[in-house]
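Take a record:
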Amino acid sequence: MAPRLDFSDWWAKDTRKGTPVVVKMENPNYSVVEIDGPDSAFRPVEKSRGKNAKQVTWVLLLKAHRAVGCLTWLATVFWSLLGAIKKRLSFTHPLGSEKLGRDRWLFTAIKLFLAVSLLILGFEIVAYFRGWHYFQSPNLHIPTSTLEIQSLLHLVYVGWLTLRADYIAPPIKALSTFCIVLFLIQSVDRLILCLGCFWIKYKKIKPRFDEEPFRNDDAEGSGFEYPMVLVQIPMCNEREVYEQSISAVCQLDWPKDRILVQVLDDSNDESIQQLIKAEVAKWSQKGVNIIYRHRLVRTGYKAGNLKSAMSCDYVEAYEYVAIFDADFQPTPDFLKLTVPHFKDNPELGLVQARWTFVNKDENLLTRLQNINLCFHFEVEQQVNGVFLNFFGFNGTAGVWRIKALEESGGWLERTTVEDMDIAVRAHLHGWKFIYLNDVKVLCEVPESYEAYKKQQHRWHSGPMQLFRLCLGSILTSKIAIWKKANLILLFFLLRKLILPFYSFTLFCIILPLTMFVPEAELPVWVICYIPVFMSFLNLLPSPKSFPFIVPYLLFENTMSVTKFNAMVSGLFQLGSSYEWIVTKKAGRSSESDLLSITEKETPNNKSQLLRGVSDSELLELSQLEEQKQAVSKKPVKKTNKIYHKELALAFLLLTAALRSLLAAQGVHFYFLLFQGVTFLLVGLDLIGEQMS
């Protein structure tokens, strides 16, 4: 230590006089200080004074106030949750519970797992309070000598530890390692897709066409020669959206003699049929080339409807067909932005546009759906379209070359994903696809969890059906080997089978299981860091959704139950694999549609519309108008649903959270707690709008 150059001591030796003074204060709050020199008052003095009883009392009261405030907040949240659960259960319709049907196997397995977990939890709580915990990470000490055994119950617990360490932990470790490997592979695939999207943005890569592709100087009149385009609107009992979709399609900017609109109505409700007929008649009198078709034999769902429409004799005169579902509202320039890409590109079979959602901000469920679908279109479809010229047709908002449909075998009724089926078969026949990210078509996403659950079941069971049916055709096709590998390994296995498998198995089964088998505990980066990073990548196409990153992560794990169940039912042809339920629509309209409806309902426009209508047609239209008003005035009764599998998994995860609390596992406890609460909210149908 360096010498201290301080001359104050030397100076004090010469000037100090008298004896040291000790000052004692009567107030016990002050300590005794000895003044040793003139500079003693300026030296740092150690604070060693004690706190009196009054100060300690105030500190304890402050801490108690904070603790009571925290407990009050937790109690308020818990009481509100219980109140919502009680209200939901009391207003649940007797038929409002989920019908399990042939999918009961998964619910039975979850219930069995939950019962075993509760039994083990009770056993572990007894062992915890008796001090029988021998697990000290990363080792487990199992008593072996008879002197350490305290009782018969203790002997049983030691036997359970031996069974757990020797026979249960190894297979769980193997399964978790397998799922983690699949998780990492899928994460790498997701990262590569994002890098490909960044490259497309950086290089500004997008399909282009000539400014005037249909100009023909030899043509008479305007000098433009437009191809014949068929527009199809398949629908089934779409009371809420038929009017806005027909209106949007009939306003497409295309020569009226070069376009035909087919309204393919599969409704089994006669009142809806009459409403759609009236709407078609209204636009037909305005000069639009539009026809109404209704099948007497309604087989094959949407594929059967489209197949029946394509069998008409007049379809031979048309070169392209555009398809829009009943809730889609294309802009007037849609055909002029899509059809020109077919010009001078004979290998092009499909042009797919992007979906945008008019109700994406309606509730939390629609916001979370918007995140997934934005990533699907912005990243997956765009990257596959640019680098592979292949992607799954989305079933709507696309234009097909009719020759490509015919050469690929047309619409088949063998699966519930007829759009993916025709896309795979067209790809095997050498046709190329183009995706237009700049061409957007307004539509709706499901606003209720019931409608969304049924939609996701169909979207994840159908691809597995298709994979079983077309695997042989892929292997024997004449396309390049790398295209076969992309179809089998990436398109089907990784993104349609592996993703729901590991998501459900790892986060809903293995993670709670490892709480009761700590020897196979999952590392923190598996349950926290990588999922958060993957969720961050998914949110990149929709940056306004970043505040919902945590709800998105938890909700995606919750939906893995439905996706896993659908994947298994499609792969093994179980009861619900060929189930098609039309997604319930709310009938949301864009701002421009609302303005057009307002203008349309003015007296002048109405009188112009009815000027050329006969008396019988006028009477029919007035009756239909009264019927629409009567339907709109009927009170809508809300029914609540109870989802058994989600509720069983909620109690399972909350049980595992209690077990992790005994072991003081912070990250695991919070993840299981929040994930369990999310399952509970979804199981009680507390997310999204309720079905009417």
User: Anything to note?
Assistant: The two ends are 83 Å apart (CA to CA). Confidence is low (pLDDT under 50) at residues 1-8, 10-17, 597-614. The CA atoms of residues 191 and 537 lie 8 Å apart. The chain has 20 helices and 13 strands.
